[in-house]
Specification:
Largest interface: A-B, 44 and 48 residues
Number of helices of chain A: 15
CATH class of the largest domain in chain B: Alpha Beta
Radius of gyration of chain A: 27 Å
Number of strands of chain B: 14
Largest sheet of chain A: none
Largest sheet of chain B: 5 strands, mixed
Structural class of chain A: mainly alpha
Helix content of chain B: 40-55%
Shape of chain A: flat
Oligomer: heterodimer
Distance between the termini of chain A: 30 Å
Radius of gyration of chain B: 25 Å
Chain lengths: 318, 444
């Protein structure tokens, strides 16, 4: 075994045991660009280590301490804040809201974004104009989106007037002010803003599909529906996956639209974890409880991102 | 050939590494630097006028009358201390509660040991629990003695100012919270001549108005009914009982709180349609609309808002059942420990507390001075009536506006009311308030 290694690894046949091999590799490694690469990366590794992972650890540490006034108090209290959080009505509503919001937001973004991309992909006239128009909301801040949609969703003066005009006067929802389903209305406003971006992602994906595949499908007698169903959509799965992760992350950290729409809303109907965390920490000086909410948000994000990163690295290896 | 290329690439990479390190260092240093970018510091100071150091004034006054009033005070300061550079570090009032973003930024600067020379803060518990208890403020006994403030501020106000026997800030203005703004035309519609003097009277009127399709009261969906609620609590407990709610002598499980919550809960039935969709400015506009409600409980900043909208068809009175009581809130300025230019800060506080300073600030802001020796010719009809009430009424501190209780209780109080809009359940709302009061540890 050892002999074979020596013969394969080259001319200096002294290496009878694994140790010299390691040393040689180490030397070769040193000779190469690896050292420089590490040196170059080191500043960002340190910065990321301190400013991201260090602070994540710090936040978690705060969440098990007793800091609940303007004076820091680092007494260890175990899971006291966590117990309180789990039993908190507002927190439970937040989790419900995030679930509803994620379902509404992600599905709207994917459906609207994909549809617009497909329509734009039909080699229509003025494509650049439409593309700009559809992606424009993405350039608008969440606060502006929220304020605008708050006006649009006023029951007496907003889009309900449009419904009344087309003879649907009976359809008069109270949108974001609805105590049960207000959070769905928030997802409409947010999807309006984000769908254009999703469209751009899908459009890039569609443009990346070789024309031969479509032609081949056409020759095999596939209609438009079958082409999309069996060729295009499966080929766009990586894009859909990216979109899913992006919109999923957005669903976890939603703050600005909710704040501008008058969050937390009656009975916390449109509250979000981020808004709750902000008010708890800086409004009530409950730093430990706020840190616990922040940690929950981070765990949710990890659940979403880790599978994504794993699949990405698998793809790179391939 | 090969070697040279390798070296040059390496030295290139090395340079890159140095560059990256530098930029990281720069990034680390950035947050430590004082937040520059002051919002237009009033009039541009002369170039030479910096030997006296700086005065950074941190506030949430960025809109209309308030920023004009602030600039008037800056003008006085500049006249008296021309060698000091004034930095107006104002941040728009947004976020949770009045000045939410500003308070959050201030909090990070106080924790980071980089306080501004002085900052705006609501007089009372907001200042005490957020900053005084944490040991970040200097007591102002010397200033109060030197300027004789105890003689010109009413005794009831001094009770709000003092904590632990020391004053901690200088009040610039006084707003009144327990006011009812009503529209005489709506009263005529039901043949009434005077606004409701009690909540029972209000409900009778509101019932009559409802038959004509006129809403009785303007409410907002969330984040704002805490203001109406505090006037109801005040009506139930009166000026004598009111402090007891916050010093532990009256429990929040008390029957009076139940009664107040029941009134609040009933009010929703007489609010404008779709009030759940309205917040903030919408509610003020709703009051102006032709199909608007009979009345609205709001502080006297609403008077300023009506004036700016040139709306005149309104009158005012104390909110039902609180006649003779002045539920006050006050903006004040304090002196943090460890500021760079302490003398400049004290001179600023002198301007804030002076008759000239308060008369320059308040007429435009729409509030009244904390001092009793104002110049009446500068103020409008409402303000003069408020000044009269200010002298004769019993003064108590507002809950909703930071004078009576600490911030954490205020947030819990608003969230509990926020839930009641949805659940319409008095018992569970009161239970939440009891828990909040326990946590606030009133009286301990």
């Amino acid at each position: 075994m050892a002999n074979r290694t020596v013969s394969v690894s080259g001319e200096r046949g002294l290496a009878a045991s694994p140790a010299p091999i390691t040393r040689k590799r180490w030397r070769r490694w040193l000779r190469g660009d690896m050292v420089l690469a590490v040196l170059v990366l080191l500043p960002s590794i340190i910065a990321v280590g301190i400013f991201i992972y260090g602070f994540i650890g710090w936040t978690f540490y705060i969440s098990v301490s007793d800091w609940k006034t303007s004076t820091p108090d680092f007494t260890f209290v175990g899971l006291k804040n966590w117990t309180r959080l789990v039993n908190d009505f507002r927190f439970q509503m937040d989790l419900r809201n995030h679930l509803y919001y994620a379902i509404g937001f992600i599905s709207q973004c994917i459906v609207i974004g994909f549809t617009l991309a497909v329509l734009l992909d039909q080699k229509i006239k003025g494509e650049a104009l439409f593309r700009t128009m559809f992606i424009f909301p993405f350039a608008v801040s969440g606060i502006v989106t929220g304020v605008t949609w708050q006006w649009l969703m006023q029951p007496a003066t907003g889009i309900n007037l449009l419904f009344a005009k087309i003879g649907m006067g009976w359809f008069r929802p109270t949108w974001h002010a609805n105590i049960e389903y207000g959070i769905w209305a928030v997802s409409i406003a947010a999807a309006w803003q984000f769908s254009g971006y999703v469209m751009a992602l899908y459009l890039a994906g569609l443009r990346g599909i070789p024309a031969e595949l479509r032609e081949a499908a056409a020759i095999d007698g596939a209609g438009t529906w079958a082409t999309y169903r069996y060729i295009i959509i499966p080929l766009l799965m990586p894009v859909t996956f990216t979109v899913f992760v992006l919109t999923g992350m957005n669903s976890i950290r939603i703050f600005d639209v909710v704040a501008a729409l008058g969050g937390p809303g009656p009975g916390n109907s449109i509250d979000s974890l981020a808004l709750n965390m902000f008010q708890t920490t800086f409004g009530a000086y409950r730093f430990s409880l706020g840190a616990a909410i922040g940690s929950v948000m981070m765990f949710l994000a990890i659940f979403l991102v880790v599978p994504y990163l794993m699949s990405m690295s698998r793809e790179t290896e391939r | 050939m090969n070697g040279t290329e390798g070296i040059s690439r390496r030295s290139f990479l090395r340079l890159m590494g140095v560059g990256a390190t530098m930029s990281v260092l720069a990034a680390c240093a950035a947050p430590a630097a004082p937040s520059a970018a002051p919002a237009a510091g009033g009039e541009a100071a002369p170039a030479a006028a910096v030997d006296g150091g700086k005065l950074e004034v941190f506030s949430w006054w960025t809109a209309g009358g308030e920023v004009e009033g602030l600039n008037n005070m800056f003008a006085i300061y500049e006249r008296e201390h021309p060698d000091v550079e004034i930095i107006n570090a104002a941040l728009a009032a947004q976020g949770a509660g009045q000045g939410g973003e500003m308070k959050a930024l201030l909090e990070t600067r106080m924790i980071g040991g980089d306080p501004p020379e002085t900052f705006q803060v609501h007089l009372g518990r907001e200042l005490i629990d957020s900053h005084v208890v944490a040991g970040r403020m200097e007591p102002l006994d010397d200033l109060y003695a030197e300027e004789g403030y105890a003689d010109v501020f009413p005794a009831d106000l001094m009770n709000v100012i003092l904590y632990d026997g020391h004053p901690w800030s200088v009040p610039v203005n006084i707003h009144r919270s327990n006011l009812m703004w009503y529209r005489p035309a709506k009263l005529e519609a039901i043949g009434a001549s005077a606004p409701p003097a009690s909540w029972d009277e209000f409900f009778e009127m509101a019932e009559a108005l409802k038959e004509q399709g006129i809403p009785g009261i303007s409410l907002s969906g969330s984040n704002g009914n805490g203001h109406t609620m505090e006037s109801i609590l005040l009506a139930v407990y009166g000026a004598d009982g009111w402090p007891g709610l916050f010093d532990g002598t009256i429990s929040w499980a008390d029957e009076g709180v139940t009664r107040a919550l029941e009134i609040m809960n009933r009010l929703y039935d007489y609010a404008q349609p779709d009030f759940l969709s309205q917040s903030g400015v919408d509610v003020n506009d709703n009051m102006i609309n032709d199909d608007g409600p009979l009345l609205m409980i709001s502080g006297d900043w609403l008077h300023g808002y009506f004036k700016s909208k040139e709306f005149t068809d309104y009158k005012w009175a104390a909110s039902p059942g609180t006649d003779g009581i002045y539920l006050l809130l006050s903006d004040s300025f304090g002196l943090p420990k460890g500021v760079k230019y302490r003398d400049n800060a004290i001179n600023w506080l002198k301007v804030c507390g002076s008759r000239e300073g308060q008369d320059a600030f308040n007429p435009i802001k729409g509030s009244i001075p904390a001092r009793t020796d104002l110049d009446p010719s500068l103020y409008d009809e409402y303000q003069l009536s408020a000044v009269e009430d200010w002298k004769t009424n019993i003064l108590v501190g507002s809950l909703q506006h930071g004078a009576a209780a600490k911030q954490s209780f205020l947030l819990d109080y608003n969230l509990a009311l926020n839930d009641m809009v949805a659940t319409r359940d008095v018992a569970s709302t009161q239970a939440a308030l009891v828990v909040a009061a326990e946590e606030a540890a009133f009286g301990q």
